[in-house]
Amino acid sequence: MKPRDRLRIAAQKSGRLSDAGRDLLARSGLRFRESRDRLFCYGETEPVDLLLVRDDDIPGLIAEGVCDLGIVGRNVLREQSLEYARRGERAPFSELRTLGFGRCRLSIAVPQDFLYTGPASLAGTRIATSYPALMADWLDRNGVKAEVVTLSGSVEIAPKLGKADVICDLVSTGATLAANQLREVASILDSEAVLAGPAEALQDERGELAAQLLRRLDGVLEVRDSKLVMLQVDRAELDQVVQLLPAANAPTVMAIEGNAQAVALQALCRGAFSWQQLEDIKRAGARGLMILPVEQMLA
Ligand SMILES: Nc1ncnc2c1ncn2[C@@H]1O[C@H](COP(=O)(O)OP(=O)(O)OP(=O)(O)O)[C@@H](O)[C@H]1O
Ligand SMILES: O=P(O)(O)OC[C@H]1O[C@H](OP(=O)(O)OP(=O)(O)O)[C@H](O)[C@@H]1O
Ligand SMILES: [Mg+2]
């Protein structure tokens, strides 16, 4: 492979990972000039270019050295890793970061009247899936012999068409399964968008560019998952409230002018708050509870 002095990132051209992937790159300070065909976008702010492709092609592009990094679903990356493993080879790409969007699971689903009591119930069945390597691996690990029928799409319709007895496909809300009268019985992989890169560290200038990009990405991911919580609470109830906060560090507790009984509290918290958590915090004595997004953060 010829040395390159610009880094190349592959992302899905159009689909479930496109918008959030582009947004993440933009937040990491990357701006691209859109070309007419929109397949190759020249990086204007950094020597980092973007290639817009089908998601299934991303691991292969990394394997061939055409791209250095890629935003792809773990389901696609693992499937293609397993194809190497089943040939006794080591995959030339790996998962570098989890990106927190495109969450779904790869699940086995059966028709409503299928009696499923565990993996052994699948013995001798035909299983339709677009993920034959992941499916075969799961069957092997569970000691089940079944026929894997590989379909590239519309997997959910396979049982109705008589092409398979059960299916294994991506599920998020479960609406597609319900619409096809299928019932989810086992999940074989939890997936989300990941940043993929070569298994071996990049040589030439690209190594440093990739390391810099990863540092920025880590900052963006940390901020995205952080919230600033502000509230007031009586001193007597302070400990109780603090215990309910998923605070990253010890919260800052401040005096309130003219009110010796209460304090103001400020805490950096990780993850989203559920309504239940908010109710619990309020019930524990918090007043004027505010949850603010964090724009940027410097450690
Ligand atoms: N229902 C879902 N909810 C959340 N994420 C999903 C869902 N379905 C798929 N994904 C994730 O998004 C990725 C891309 O899904 P999409 O349906 O856009 O792919 P595709 O049809 O294979 O697109 P392409 O044209 O690029 O090949 C999947 O590989 C998976 O990681
Ligand atoms: O559990 P749900 O929320 O219904 O999501 C699951 C569906 O989403 C994906 O397909 P998508 O909608 O992306 O269409 P595609 O088959 O054309 O890729 C996946 O292949 C399932 O069919
Ligand atoms: Mg695809």
Please outline the helices and strands:
Blueprint: E1 7-12, H1 18-27, E2 32-33, E3 40-43, E4 48-53, H2 58-63, E5 69-73, H3 74-86, E6 93-98, E7 104-111, E8 126-129, H4 132-141, E9 147-150, H5 158-161, E10 166-171, H6 175-179, E11 182-191, E12 193-198, H7 204-224, E13 226-234, H8 238-243, E14 252-256, E15 259-270, H9 275-283, E16 287-293
Parallel strand pairs: 1-4, 1-5, 8-9, 8-10
Antiparallel strand pairs: 2-3, 3-4, 5-12, 6-12, 7-10, 7-11, 13-15, 13-16, 14-15
Helix pairs in contact: 3-4
This protein binds adenosine-5'-triphosphate (ATP), 1-O-pyrophosphono-5-O-phosphono-alpha-D-ribofuranose (PRP) and magnesium ion.
Magnesium ion binds at residues 54-56.
What does this structure look like?
This protein is α+β, with helices and mostly antiparallel strands. 28% of the residues lie in helices and 33% in strands. Strands 2-3-4-1-5-12-6 form a seven-stranded mixed beta sheet, with helices on both faces. It has a five-stranded mixed beta sheet with strand order 9-8-10-7-11. The longest helix is centred in the last third of the chain and has 21 residues, at 204-224. It is flat. 31% of the residues are buried. The mean pLDDT is 94. The chain binds adenosine-5'-triphosphate (ATP), 1-O-pyrophosphono-5-O-phosphono-alpha-D-ribofuranose and magnesium ion. Magnesium ion binds next to loops.
